[in-house]
Amino acid sequence: MSNILLVGGGGREHAIAEALCRDDSVRLFAVMNCKNPGIIALSQSDDWVVHNENDINWVTNWADEKNIDFAVVGFEEPLGEGLCDELENRGIPALGPKKEAARLETSKVFTRVLLDEYDIPGNAEYQLFSDPNELSKFLKSTSKQYALKPVGLTAGKGVKIMGEQLKTTEEAIQYGHEVIQQEIGQYAQILLEERLTGEEFTLQCFVDGKTLVPMPLVQDFKRASEGDKGPNTGGMGSYSQANGLLPFVTEDDRDEALSILEKIIAILSSKKGIKYQGVLYGQFMIGGNGIKLVEINARFGDPEAMNVLSLLETSLVDICKAIINGTLDKLNVRFSNKASVCTYVAPPGYETGNPKSDSKLVVDEPRIKEIGAELYYAKVELKHGAVLTTSSRSLAVVGIADTTRQAHAVAEDALHCIKGEFHARHDIGKKYFSSEETYKDIIDDHNHIDNQCMGVG
Ligand code: AMP
Ligand code: GLY
């Protein structure tokens, strides 16, 4: 038996819990700041607790009390607070980088400077400002467009792009001043990066300090509304292709992105004496200027975790052990050759920034399973047996099939099994469907639909 502690209670963490529990040897323990019904269903009643995950001492004491063999930390805040360091001090190995290594995510400047200092390819031009007047002067003197980024953590919502959310130079200056003066992102600083253009993709890897094992590529849809409109969110949905690539990313492109991540891990180890252990998430932009790094995260993406973990065939427990023991190079990590489409269900009004809490969702779990989709709960409230929305994303469905087009259809069917008021995007991955499919796939699909209409299929 392995006693495994999971830290976090979102959709990503439910997917991690589900993947861990596919292994019969697992007894799951969980600390989360809300009652995630999916995680609760996978653990015994004394083995989960609702508590602030950033309360490092408390979480470490609890882990100690429960004789945890190893911990999996799902999200960035406790990583930034040094939870993995504290757990290790108590002799509990953790999946997740220690505080110094997590700086790849918790400080956007740290990562940009690292790439610069060691000539790692894929960097964007950048400049750091802490004086509002200098920032104004600079922005007025240039016609280039920039991404304005608070330096520390902002739950994916602090980045604003000139020409997108920031329509004029004045708006950019005003936002820059706000970030510096209100210390949005924990520092009185703002990072300006050249505005990258092209298509974005996510490459997640398991890392044991030296070996990186890549997972299938995923594309995340961050904008709240269909057609990539509305404010940025943590992600409204994501898809992956059966061959692990994307319609606009070749194998060579993927290898180039992977080699950027490999160089980062190698430099951290050889030049800074920092060992990176856990999941590494690289967000890249591919376009006219080749492949550029948009950002690094120190954990699985949410929703991207739900795509790759739904496809993972190798035991996640074995992978965790190989990461802890530094033996990832000896493990054959496999994913099924299927496509996936993940769609988040968010509270009504989420798309306009006015999410409605306490809206009741009735989820037909057996039917969702029957149609071959996965269901992952995120931030919901449980009251008198009912699932209620909070102000955050509520739950996600993942369709799995041979093509993304078919996986999308499965995810859409799964959405029909959820009754109540909610906001979801129905266009996840849709604009790319034709590029991965043969004419025959589409015809087969049509025949299937026609037969159903005639009551035959
Ligand atoms: P981040 O929190 O760094 O992932 O940024 C959130 C989103 O902002 C990214 O997924 C991109 O869509 C966009 N973004 C970030 N940096 C840039 C950049 N330098 N140029 C263009 N878009 C960016
Ligand atoms: N989906 C983006 C993130 O997890 O940061």
Number of helices: 16
User: What composes the largest sheet?
Assistant: 5 strands, parallel
Distance between the termini: 45 Å
Could you tell me which ligands this complex binds, including any ions or cofactors? adenosine monophosphate, glycine
Structural class: alpha+beta
CATH first level of the largest domain: Alpha Beta
What can you see in these coordinates?
33% of the residues lie in helices and 26% in strands. The longest helix is centred in the middle third of the chain and has 22 residues, at 251-272. The strands form five sheets. Strands 3-2-1-4-5 form a five-stranded parallel sheet. It has a five-stranded antiparallel sheet with strand order 12-13-16-21-18. A four-stranded antiparallel sheet has the order 6-9-7-8, with helices on both faces. Helix 2 links the parallel strand 2 and strand 3 (48-50). The chain is globular and about 60 Å long. The chain has 16 helices and 22 strands. The protein is α+β, with helices and mostly antiparallel strands and 457 residues long. The protein folds into three domains: 2-96, Rossmann fold (3-Layer(aba) Sandwich); 125-194, Dna Ligase, domain 1 (2-Layer Sandwich); 199-454, D-amino Acid Aminotransferase, Chain A, domain 1. It has helices at residues 11-21, 37-42, 56-65, 76-80, 83-89, 103-106, 108-117, 132-140, 169-181, 251-272, 304-311, 316-325, 365-370, 404-415, 433-436, 439-453, and strands at 2-7, 26-32, 48-50, 70-73, 94-95, 126-129, 146-150, 160-161, 190-194, 199-207, 212-214, 219-225, 229-240, 278-287, 290-297, 339-345, 360-363, 373-377, 380-383, 386-389, 395-401, 418-419. Helix 1 runs parallel beside helix 11 (304-311) and helix 8 runs antiparallel to helix 9 (169-181). Bound molecules: adenosine monophosphate (AMP) and glycine. Residues 156, 220, 234-235, 297, 301-302, 304 line the site of glycine (GLY).
